[in-house]
């Protein structure tokens, strides 16, 4: 079961008597070198893909895996058993237009997007080839670290010579798994964490229910993130989610 949430963004207008509206912040995708072995913090940024026009809509989808077994001596399925969360997915559209210049900048922008779904040149020679890590930089959504899993490009306008000068690209990004195990200063044992990206209207109790099947464990998520007010969560916030064995002491 999925629960897509869409956020609509537009540039605010200035109110009468309050001066001009705020300057427009241009969204862009930042491409980062993936970490060695695919785990850990990403490397430095090496390129960007700018939005020619800011997106009108960002669609987030969050799902979980469940297992249902048939009850004995019946044909009915049993109570669903939580198997873990799936990565959050972000789908957006990028619009490119070169009708003013009639050059190849649209084709180059689409080609750069296509390079995001293949391993980087730096990792091709390694034991584990990885695509670039990508971060959407725009407003509050500065923490969604992901990889691009799919790009669909529709060229909708061409020059008489066949050069595409307008395109609409649908981009699907999947969040990267949480950071690698880190040291627990109290026990000396590694602590395992996942990462969850908050969507609109979500509470810590809902996050705990998705992660552990028990909304009452929201305090563990709050403590891991230093949250004092569990009812005020901003969409796009990245939460560290301790593994269940961390809460049960490995039992």
Walkthrough of the structure:
By secondary structure, the chain is α+β, with helices and mostly antiparallel strands. It has two domains: 150 residues, Beta Barrel (Elongation Factor Tu (Ef-tu), domain 3), CATH 2.40.30; 67 residues, Membrane-bound Lytic Murein Transglycosylase D, Chain A, CATH 3.10.350.10. Helices cover 14% and strands 33% of the residues. The protein has five helices and 14 strands. The protein has an eight-stranded antiparallel beta sheet with strand order 1-4-7-10-9-8-2-3. The chain has a two-stranded antiparallel ribbon with strand order 5-6. Strand 8 and strand 9 form a beta hairpin. Helix 3 crosses helix 4. The protein is elongated and about 70 Å long. The N terminus is likely disordered.
CATH architecture of the largest domain: Beta Barrel
Helical/strand content category: alpha+beta
Q: How many separate domains make up the residues?
A: 2
| Strand count | 14
Report the CATH C-level class of the largest domain.
Mainly Beta
> What count of helical segments does DSSP give?
5
How would the blueprint of this fold be written?
Elements: E1 5-8, E2 28-32, E3 45-50, E4 57-61, E5 64-67, E6 81-85, E7 89-97, H1 105-114, H2 121-124, E8 133-137, E9 145-158, E10 164-175, E11 182-183, E12 190-191, E13 193-197, H3 204-212, H4 218-225, E14 238-242, H5 244-248
Antiparallel strand pairs: 1-4, 2-3, 2-8, 4-7, 5-6, 7-10, 8-9, 9-10, 11-12, 13-14
Helix pairs in contact: 3-4
